[in-house]
Write a structure and sequence with these properties.
The chain folds into 2 domains: about 55 residues; about 40 residues. The radius of gyration is 26 Å and the shape is elongated. It has 4 helices and no strands. It is mainly α. The relative contact order is 0.07.
Length: about 90
Protein backbone atom coordinates (compact mmCIF):
# COMPACT_ATOMS: atom_id res chain seq x y z
CA UNK A 1 0.00 0.00 0.00
CA UNK A 2 1.59 3.25 -1.16
CA UNK A 3 -0.52 6.11 0.19
CA UNK A 4 0.60 9.73 0.16
CA UNK A 5 -0.61 10.67 3.65
CA UNK A 6 0.49 14.27 3.25
CA UNK A 7 -1.56 14.68 0.08
CA UNK A 8 -4.63 13.09 1.64
CA UNK A 9 -4.33 15.27 4.74
CA UNK A 10 -3.74 18.50 2.84
CA UNK A 11 -6.11 17.94 -0.11
CA UNK A 12 -8.93 15.78 1.24
CA UNK A 13 -9.42 16.86 4.85
CA UNK A 14 -11.55 19.98 5.03
CA UNK A 15 -9.90 23.04 6.52
CA UNK A 16 -12.81 23.51 8.92
CA UNK A 17 -12.14 20.04 10.35
CA UNK A 18 -8.50 20.89 10.92
CA UNK A 19 -9.47 24.18 12.55
CA UNK A 20 -11.97 22.48 14.86
CA UNK A 21 -9.24 20.08 15.98
CA UNK A 22 -6.68 22.87 16.21
CA UNK A 23 -4.57 21.01 13.66
CA UNK A 24 -2.26 22.89 11.29
CA UNK A 25 -3.02 23.16 7.59
CA UNK A 26 0.12 21.24 6.56
CA UNK A 27 0.80 17.62 7.39
CA UNK A 28 4.47 18.26 8.17
CA UNK A 29 3.45 20.75 10.86
CA UNK A 30 1.61 18.06 12.84
CA UNK A 31 3.29 16.56 15.87
CA UNK A 32 4.78 13.11 15.32
CA UNK A 33 1.92 11.61 17.35
CA UNK A 34 -0.74 13.43 15.31
CA UNK A 35 0.95 12.38 12.06
CA UNK A 36 0.88 8.77 13.23
CA UNK A 37 -2.80 9.10 14.16
CA UNK A 38 -3.68 10.55 10.74
CA UNK A 39 -1.65 7.83 8.99
CA UNK A 40 -3.42 5.11 10.99
CA UNK A 41 -6.85 6.59 10.19
CA UNK A 42 -6.04 6.79 6.47
CA UNK A 43 -4.66 3.24 6.42
CA UNK A 44 -7.72 1.89 8.25
CA UNK A 45 -10.05 3.68 5.83
CA UNK A 46 -8.10 2.33 2.88
CA UNK A 47 -8.19 -1.24 4.20
CA UNK A 48 -11.91 -0.96 4.95
CA UNK A 49 -12.64 0.36 1.46
CA UNK A 50 -10.68 -2.53 -0.08
CA UNK A 51 -12.45 -5.08 2.09
CA UNK A 52 -15.84 -3.64 1.17
CA UNK A 53 -14.99 -3.48 -2.53
CA UNK A 54 -13.71 -7.06 -2.55
CA UNK A 55 -16.50 -8.47 -0.38
CA UNK A 56 -17.53 -11.78 -1.98
CA UNK A 57 -21.23 -11.02 -1.48
CA UNK A 58 -20.86 -7.67 -3.23
CA UNK A 59 -18.87 -9.29 -6.04
CA UNK A 60 -21.51 -12.01 -6.48
CA UNK A 61 -24.27 -9.39 -6.62
CA UNK A 62 -22.26 -7.35 -9.11
CA UNK A 63 -21.73 -10.43 -11.26
CA UNK A 64 -25.44 -11.29 -11.21
CA UNK A 65 -26.37 -7.71 -12.06
CA UNK A 66 -23.92 -7.58 -14.96
CA UNK A 67 -25.31 -10.86 -16.34
CA UNK A 68 -28.85 -9.48 -16.14
CA UNK A 69 -27.79 -6.23 -17.83
CA UNK A 70 -26.05 -8.22 -20.56
CA UNK A 71 -29.17 -10.27 -21.16
CA UNK A 72 -31.35 -7.17 -21.32
CA UNK A 73 -28.96 -5.42 -23.71
CA UNK A 74 -28.91 -8.50 -25.93
CA UNK A 75 -32.72 -8.54 -26.00
CA UNK A 76 -32.77 -4.84 -26.86
CA UNK A 77 -30.23 -5.39 -29.62
CA UNK A 78 -32.37 -8.16 -31.11
CA UNK A 79 -35.45 -5.95 -30.94
CA UNK A 80 -33.65 -3.11 -32.73
CA UNK A 81 -32.26 -5.45 -35.37
CA UNK A 82 -35.73 -6.87 -35.96
CA UNK A 83 -37.18 -3.37 -36.25
CA UNK A 84 -34.48 -2.30 -38.72
CA UNK A 85 -34.89 -5.49 -40.73
CA UNK A 86 -38.64 -4.89 -40.93
CA UNK A 87 -38.07 -1.25 -41.98
CA UNK A 88 -35.58 -2.33 -44.67
CA UNK A 89 -38.07 -4.90 -45.96
CA UNK A 90 -40.83 -2.27 -46.10
CA UNK A 91 -38.52 0.24 -47.79
CA UNK A 92 -37.59 -2.27 -50.48
CA UNK A 93 -41.22 -2.84 -51.54
Amino acid sequence: MNINHQQVYEDEIEEVTKELLNYPRRFNELSHEAQRFVEDLIAAGYQRALADALDPVVLEETSALSKEMSSQLSSMSSLIESFLSHKNTEGGN
